[in-house]
Amino acid sequence: MIRECKYVIVSCSTGMEIPVLIPMAMGHGEMSHENIVSAGFCSIKRDGKVSCYGKSASLDKDSRGEDDEYLIKCFFFTREK
């Protein structure tokens, strides 16, 4: 099974970048924020493989591909010990 969604990466005041996943029914523009550093689309497979691609026309931001994939994997799929 593959989940398709939109996403934005937001830079916090600390400089940490946080991924925000958005349902396909919403537009990127609904997540407008002055600190968005990238945006696009992602597919997430059941095994945790994440693929980021494309761009948000409404925010005029591109996906950063592997960099964004890494952030999403770490944020949503890494277990703390």
Short synopsis of the structure:
This protein has 81 residues and is mainly β. Helices cover 15% and strands 42% of the residues. It is built from one helix and six strands.
Q: Quote the beta fraction.
A: 35-45%
Overall number of domains? 1
- Structure annotation, total helices: 1
Helix content: 10-25%
Average pLDDT confidence is 90
- Structural class by secondary-structure content: mainly beta
Low-confidence stretches: none
- Radius of gyration using CA atoms only: 12 Å
Q: Cα distance, first to last residue?
A: 28 Å
The profile of the biggest β sheet is:
4 strands, antiparallel
The SSE order reads EEEEEEH
Q: Could you tell me the number of beta strands?
A: 6
Strand order of the largest sheet: 2-1-3-4
Query: What global shape is seen?
Result: globular
What does this entry look like structurally?
There is one protein chain. The protein has about 80 residues and is mainly β. It has one domain. Helices cover about 15% and strands about 40% of the residues. The protein has 1 helix and 6 strands. β1 and β2 form a beta hairpin. The longest helix is centred in the last third of the chain and has 12 residues, at about 65-75.
